[in-house]
Every structure is written in C-alpha cells, then in structure tokens.
Design goal:
One of its GO terms (cellular component) is cytoplasm. One of its GO terms (biological process) is SRP-dependent cotranslational protein targeting to membrane. The chain is of the alpha/beta class and 301 residues long. The chain has 12 helices and 8 strands. An 8-stranded mixed sheet has the order 3-2-4-1-5-6-7-8, with helices on both faces. The structure holds guanosine-5'-diphosphate. Guanosine-5'-diphosphate binds next to α6.
Amino acid sequence: EKFKEGLAKTRDSFVGQMNELFAQYRSVDEEFFEELEEILIGADVGVSTVLELIDELKDEVKLRNIKDSTEIAPVISEKLAEKLDKSGEDTELNIQKDGMTVILFVGVNGVGKTTTIGKVAHFFKEQDKTVVMAAGDTFRAGAIEQLEVWGERVGVDVVKQQAGSDPAAVMYDAIQSARAKQADILLCDTAGRLQNKVNLMKELEKVKRVISRELPEAPHEVLLVLDATTGQNALSQAKTFQETTDVSGIVLTKLDGTARGGIVLAIRNELDIPVKLVGLGEGIEDLQQFDAEQFVYGLFK
Ligand code: GDP
C-alpha cells in the first residue's frame, strides 16, 4: 500500500504513457520500441539500462512470437521486475543480534538525510530498541538543531557538540554514550557539503576510522542517501561517494515527489550497491524497506 501511494506520480505518468503507446501502436515493431525507449528514458531509467531492457524485450518478442502490442505489457513488467530484483542483493539492514549496531548516513545536503535518520530512529523505537543519534554534521548551520528536533519527536537522545567541532570527536562521544546506555542502535549523521569534495571524503574516512577503532566491526552500514527527484544527478553523486567511501546501501528519498521513479532501476543496474530503503513522504512512517516486487506492483496496479 505504501508503495502504491508513494509511487502515484510515477505510475500516473508511466502507465498513462504506456497506455497511449499501446493505443497508438497495435503491432510490436521498430517504431514501437523507439517510443518505448523514449518513455523509459523519460522516466529516468537511465540510457544504458533502457538499451539493455529493449534488447531483452526484443529477444522475448521473437521467442514468444508476440505480434500485438497488448501482449507485450506483462513482459515489460516482468523484465522490469527482473532488472530490479538482482539476485543476491540483500535489502535487509545489517543489524547485530548482540551488541550495538552503528549506521552511518552519508549524502549531499538537502537529500533528506536528517529526515531519514529520524524515520529510521522511529522504526527501531517501534521495535523497542534503544536508539541514540549522533549529530555528526557540525558544519551546516542548523543541522544539529534539526536532528535534536527529530530526537525529541521520536524520543531518542542526541549526542552533540557545538557547531564547528570535529565530527570524529562527536562520534567518539556518541559511542561512549551509546555504550553507557546499552543502546542497540547508533545512528550517525555526517556533513554533506560536496563543494569541497576532498575535505568531505577525508572527514568521512576519519569518522569511520574513529568508529571502527572503538567498535571493530562498525560501522555496520554506511547508507548513502540520494534524492530521487534529482534524477541522473543522484547517480553521479553515488559514483562520487563510491569512489572514496565504502557504501553498503542506498536510501532513495522523495520517490513520492517525482514522476520519474525509474531512477531506482538506473541505480540498481548501474551501481553495485543495493537500494535498502526508500522514502515515500515527509511523515515519520514514510520509509519502507525496498522490495522489487512491491515496487513493480506499485507501478502497474
Ligand atoms: P538533509 O539536508 O539531507 O538533512 O535533508 P532534510 O532531511 O532536511 O530534508 C530536506 C527536505 O526534504 C525536507 O523538507 C524533508 O521534509 C524532505 N524530505 C525528506 N525525505 C522525503 C521523502 O521521502 N519524501 C518527501 N516528499 N520529502 C522528503
């Protein structure tokens, strides 16, 4: 249901265009595929993914001897689901059974990182876990206060220092404090200023180093938060982060705010990082674990 609601914009646009396509082209020919290609690229599926998909569809059409365009509709959703559901990709968060799980959130300012941390905190609180948040974005004005607002809303402690302090020192404090509270989950915010890429990446490395010095297996997840409404830009952000940081999963936010939700396919296909969570609204509950089947269902139903 959440997927259906959150994907309304994408579905209206995509299904609308597909229906027009089927109405316009009765037979599955070269022109049909050209139009389909345009629709998919327009939905931000990404050129290389679209070309792959079209090739596979052409093969299927030959194999199944499909002539009429209406017959190809189920094949398209089948192929989309296949592309999304790459085998072996685990969308589960790596949560420790014993001891504390540390999750680091990285990503550019404005993508929805703080909101996501708040939603994730709420998600774990609902499971009766003890959660602590670390205000590791000491750079952006207001970032610490914003996290505190979420902390109050969710009922979770926020470990902070003053603005401008060393984020690695904040993390050190946060781990000590979370330990003292016997916390299950520590959620760490980080800075997102990409204007100074080299410094940011160095900062993230230092933060990770301090965390793993205190807790050898940690961070257990490094989640890169990307904004679905920025389309192909999100892909290039991911590539930048991937070059220097080990990202273990992606959170794709604001899927509800775009008609071009095909970006999920581009991300799944062009990056070697699983999409683990998706943001489907501004509310505290509007976060879902990614599920390929539900996603495709949400697109077509
Ligand atoms: P940050 O700078 O990355 O920490 O971004 P914020 O968490 O402050 O979010 C920026 C804006 O995006 C806020 O207005 C959020 O309410 C909004 N936002 C975050 N996630 C979602 C989402 O999944 N859907 C929608 N519609 N808005 C979102």
